Amino acid sequence: MASKPEPAPPADTTTDATVSRRGFFMKLGILFNGLAASALAVPIVGFLLSSITRGRANGYLSWVPLGKVSEFPEGETRLATFQNPYVMPTDGKTADTACWVRRVAGEQFQVFAVNCAHLGCPVRWFAQSGLFMCPCHGGAYYRDGSRASGPPERGLFEYPYKIENGLVTIQAGELPTPGAPMAQFTREKPPCAS
Amino acid sequence: MRIMIGKAQLAKIGAWFDHRLQLAAPVREIAEHRVPRNAASWWYVFGTAALTVFVLQIVTGILLALVYVPSGAEAWSSLQALNHDVTLGWFIRAMHGWGSNFMLAIVLIHMVQVFLFGAHKFPRELTWIVGVFLLLMTLGMAFSGQVLRFDQDAYWGLGIGASIVSRVPILGPAIVKLMLGGPIIAGATLSRFFALHVFVIPGLLIGFVCLHLLMVLKLGINDWPVPGRIVKRATYEKEYQELTKRDGEPFLPYAIWKDMFFAAFVIVAVAACALYFGPFGPTGQPDPTIIQTVPKPDYFFLWLYALLSLLPPSLETPALLIGPVVVIVGLLLLPFVSGEGEKSWKRRPIAVLTVLLIAITLGTFTHLAEFTPWSPHMNAWSSDPVPDRFIHGSSALERQGALIFQVKQCRNCHSLGESGGQRGPALDGVAVRLTQDQLIRQVIQGGGNMPAYGNNLSPAETTALVAFLETLHPKGEAPAQDASRAIALSDDKEPGAKP
């Protein structure tokens, strides 16, 4: 912000009138530029922060269908893909996202983010040993997503889901990171669910 | 008609320009400023070399920008076009990639040399501080450049960056969105890293390089550190001026030829690496649905990758958030903490030990990261068969156990006959370390860093698996036995015990 102009001329009698007039105009000039800069700062900052503020306006999250319930055999864990609900024309393939869908039984599901809870590398499902394993630092998770071993501090991130018109639908739209809203979502489950 | 331009005409043209620009006098003054004779050393060439590689990066960067498309949908294919379709595109990419490695390496060497020669001391504190910012910007260029090579490593590398940033208390999620330009890693992310890599950081770098050079000129190049010649704020500048007067020479040509030789050598070395090794990547397409990938950062960030695996989980977030602040503040405060005193590394043992300690630590982490002993070998269970000698002459039950050992992906973390993962201990001699009961307990309940397999193995499978594990001991070395169990099971009762 610019400094405030001095409306009253300085009391110093040794300064002649011309110089103090120039000084006044220079300060006025600084003030005008300060006003212009702060007026322009509003849209500039608004533009820069738009990726954050949009999340507050109507949110990045929305419900996305993954497929029919019948596509996921009971007791198995399958990779499903969906397109991120918020797409820009330059996104290309990066708008596609993968997730692990575990159909526990009937209409009871668990949908896990592929991103490891440690640093976000893609975890892979090993049906034979019933573990999700991360290729980066060796994090491992049990079939219910709970932490088995390695550096992760918590279990896999889970998407909230619902069954709508026979479709498995999840609430998605943000990169699953330890600070994302879905990290707060935890379902109650028995300690040794398998 | 022939146009002859003689020396006289050239001088006239030069004078015409200089009358308007008035640059000749200050340029000559800069070029011929006196430097201490002892500063014209082969140890003092790294700053110029860093600047040379930076200029090389600008040139090759502009050339790449003629073809590269900073769009999430097209960046990867434009890199493929550069590698395969555009004449010599591969070479320019390779020059830029190797130039980046050289620049970081030279900047680090320059920094170590400056520190060991005491050049950060009075009155060159601000030169050091600006240099610290130059290092941070060079690291920023290296990371953002890795993102522009928009492949699988770039994609998951951004994910790692986002995971780290999201751990910042309260503001974490907002900073992630600011960094990614949206809720996910996508086109907007690449666009903003392009802006950082091509406009923001290079602009700042050029400005800071100018400041850095200006101070080198105004304060003079660091004189060769002589043990016993102590830097004192009150007297140093006067002593330095006397030294350059008494024993100085003009920078051009007395000192500059060494800089020029080394700069040329560095350019040739970058080109040779580019020719021989070729460009870096791109690896697979940045398609997040392809999860069969093992992301790894570029060479200069490998140590961090290793550190993140070896830190205990509870220490990770504090180390990630506080560590960089401590390091940067420490570097910035260094010239104020040790602004005076001995310059020579021969009289500064703590300085030398600190450099050695940091170098060995970073080197060890980098070495570990290259061989990733902590990462599971994801394909070991299907690609590394159990060596014959481990099942030779074994019983049916033990062979069944070997099969379970393979199928349940134990090999991904445990090596046998030196193939397989190294996340867990090698199992070649596990029977010597663990008794039958301990093996069963470890398999079922897990522990240490091993998941529990109790839910995933039937009792019959566990029995077979442990029977196989019990055969894993070197010839002539007996498997571990529970001594008390042997006594409990034996018929020999203690002498004198009542029947």
Give a verbal description of the structure.
The complex is a heterodimer of chains A (194) and B (499). Chain A has 194 residues and is of the alpha+beta class. Chain A has two domains: 1-48, no CATH class; 60-184, Rieske Iron-sulfur Protein (3-layer Sandwich). In chain A, 23% of the residues lie in helices and 28% in strands. Mean pLDDT of chain A is 85; it is low at 190-194. Chain B has 499 residues and is mainly α. Chain B has two domains: 30-371, Cytochrome Bc1 Complex, Chain C (Up-down Bundle), CATH 1.20.810; 380-489, Cytochrome Bc1 Complex, Chain D, domain 2 (Orthogonal Bundle). Chain B is built from 21 helices and two strands. Chain B has helices at 7-21, 24-31, 46-65, 75-84, 89-116, 125-148, 152-165, 172-180, 187-219, 236-247, 251-254, 256-277, 302-310, 313-337, 349-371, 380-383, 396-407, 430-433, 436-445, 459-469, 483-489; strands spanning 34-36, 248-250. Chain B has a two-stranded antiparallel ribbon with strand order 1-2. The longest helix of chain B is centred in the middle third of the chain and has 33 residues, at 187-219. Chain B is elongated, with a radius of gyration of 31 Å. The model of chain B has no long low-confidence stretch (mean pLDDT 91). The interface between A and B is large, with 61 and 70 residues.
